[in-house]
Amino acid sequence: MNRSGSPLRIAHVATLFSPDGAYGGPTRVAVNHAKELIERGHEVTLLGGARGFEQLPDSFDGVPARLFPVAHLVPGSGFAGLFSAGLSAHLLRHARDFDVIHIHLARDLVTLPAALIARRRGVPFVTQTHGMIDASSKLLSRPLDRFLTRPLLGSAERAFYLTQREASDLKQVMGNRDVDLQLLHNGVPVAENPANVLGRQTDVLFLARLHPRKRPRLFVEAARRLAAEFPYTTFSVVGPDEGEGKPVRDLAVKFDPAGRQIRVEGSLQLHETAQRMRQSQIFVLPSENEPFPMTVLEAMSLGLPVIISEDCGLSTAVREADAGIVVDGSVEALAEAISVLLGDESRRLACSANARNLVAQSFSMKSVVDRLEEVYRAKRNAQDGVGSIA
User: Fold this and answer.
1) What is the DSSP pairing of strand 9-17 with strand 100-103?
2) Which of 165, 267, 356, 366 has minimal Cβ neighbours within 10 Å of its Cβ?
3) CA dist 95 to 106, 110, 126, 207, Å?
4) From CA 329, how far away is CA 286, in angstroms rounded?
């Protein structure tokens, strides 16, 4: 095999790995990319901060991993204040072990130092920001952008973005600096066995971090309005607590003290989410300003009709494919959409088939990793003096 076609050594760096998937989409994306790349014969390692494990694992969801404890350097700053001295030390020693480092970059003290180390060690790196670096006016963003975000994005071999809005934000953050931007959609494997979306007993599922932006309380309020009309339906809230856990539980108990229909189930490990989705018939994510939610893609890959908000990055695709229903931010619209899908099995079945087709045609993991592989090889070949930059 020639050098341009030989296996690559790739690191995927994400801010936080945890048993309950608290960091959400970026971690899922890193794992999905890694699995497909490994299937193609590449050597891939997940690197990142970790919390919630009794003992740090040497793999995550079946992918080799080097994970390190995190600490909060900036109290009250959420994920942005996380720092991992162990990860930085490891990268200082081992960055050159990799042909390319793929950094799922955010304004935090885990991924920004990782990018800085890659640059200083002369290792090609690409960034993927998942909508996390926006045109922010927050006080902490200003020094981070000036000394780290702008110079590191400018040094990246390629900066992947999800939506045109994200591309615009990145350009605004960069100001007069150049950045090599490229569109890269999220992708998921197409599930072999779809969920059964029919039947008298139905479950409507909210599965996401319980964070104000995800709007789990809106889901519970919609469930309250529909419970009497659909007595054989359960409305389930699943996900790690990110500030909305207690309010959601309190609201659920207020509306349904016995928990017969409105259920708050807690968090799941990453490998358990697909099976939980298979137990449901409709997937709901009424979040605000959601760039490109992995859970929605995963639900559609299983054939679940989805209900999402207008400002979700997948709204146009879902509407055009009739893979579900797109709603505004009101509880009335959300309840009406759920009611439509619960009350019309033929519509539910059609949306189910359309959702799987949409994922297969537009958001398959194969098409995503085809693009990644092309960029990775170009960077490695450029380092070796072979060929040209893609």
Assistant:
1) parallel
2) 366
3) 19, 15, 14, 36
4) 7
Give the β-pairing of 9-17 and 43-50.
parallel
How many CA atoms lie less than 13 Å away from 155 in the CB half-sphere?
Answer: 23
pLDDT of 379: 74
The predicted structure's pLDDT at residue 193: 86
User: Could you name the CATH architecture of 202-362?
Assistant: 3-Layer(aba) Sandwich (3.40)
Residue 341's Cβ-count burial label (10 Å; 0-12, 13-18, 19+) is buried
| Tokens of residue 25, six digits | 């989409």
Question: Residue 89, Cβ neighbours under 10 Å: how many?
Answer: 12
Who contacts 17 (Cβ-Cβ below 8 Å, separation ≥6)? 23, 27, 46, 48, 49, 50, 60, 65, 67
Confidence at residue 144, expressed as pLDDT on a 0 to 100 scale: 84
Residue burial 180-205, b: 16+ Cβ < 10 Å; e: rest: bbeebbbbbbbbeebbebeeeebbbb
Residues 5, 40 contacting (CB under 8 angstroms): no
The C-alpha torsion from 31 through 35 and 41 to 45, rounded to 10°, is 30
Distance CA 278, CA 275 (A): 5
Within a 10 A sphere around the Cβ of 27, how many other Cβ atoms? 24
What is the CA 259 to chain-centroid distance, rounded?
Answer: 30
Say how many residues make up the chain: 390
Show me where the domains of the chain are located. 3-187+364-384, 202-362
Topology adopted by domain 3-187+364-384: Rossmann fold (3.40.50)
Residues of the chain short of pLDDT 70, as ranges, are 1-4, 76, 137, 139-140, 382-390
Give the pLDDT of residue 389: 40
C-beta separation of 53 from 22 below 8 A: no
Query: For residues 279 and 173, what is the distance between their CA atoms, to the nearest angstrom?
Result: 42
In this prediction, residue 333 carries a pLDDT of 98
Cα separation, 145 vs 153, in Å, equals 10
At residue 155, the pLDDT reads: 95
